[in-house]
Specification:
17% strand, 9% helix, two-stranded antiparallel ribbon
């Protein structure tokens, strides 16, 4: 039997703090813009008696220093469109 998801809330946010407790539990504090969250749906999710599933995804960006040597294995994602390697 599939686990049915009746209430789902998705929003962009940031992990403000994560704390490991002595009993092995982790407390995670999130912050988000109020315009990104439907508070009624969030309230329904928080009141779920079967527990909730949390999925965190990170958007990672990496800045490359232009002064570094070029690496043949690295793609130039910042180059101009149509530019060819020589």
């Amino acid at each position: 039997m599939d686990n049915a998801i009746f209430n789902k809330v998705e929003f962009k946010g940031a992990v403000e703090k994560a704390q490991l407790k002595k009993n092995g539990e982790v407390t995670i504090q999130l912050t988000a813009d109020i315009d990104d969250i439907d508070m009624n749906t969030l309230s329904l999710v928080m009141d779920s008696n079967g527990g909730v599933q949390i999925k965190l995804e990170g958007n990672q960006t990496e800045l490359v220093n232009e002064d570094e040597e070029e690496n043949d294995d690295q793609l130039d994602l910042l180059g101009e469109e149509g530019e060819k390697d020589e």
